[in-house]
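The material for today's practical consists of a large collection of protein records. There is nothing in a record beyond a sequence line and a structure line. As an example, a complete record with its sequence and its structure tokens follows:
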Amino acid sequence: MPERQTIVPGEDDPVTVDYDYQPYEAQTLEYPGCREEVTLNRVLIHGTWVDASKFSHEWRQEAEASILADIHEDNEASEPDHDDLDD
């Protein structure tokens, strides 16, 4: 399970979140596909892991959205620059 430090609205400091990530998979004739999704498992608070279900639904939604944004940003940063291929 990956861990990531992320900023969650309403929190003053970054929090470390243990989560599962399911990337988007397209539908085919044999496979129904799946949507992109982050599932929070636990959150590190003052040196103690706390089950994510202890947090409000709204907080979890904000944390999941923040992690997805971070993942998208990481993916964009790691994509090769195809402008150099024109030479």
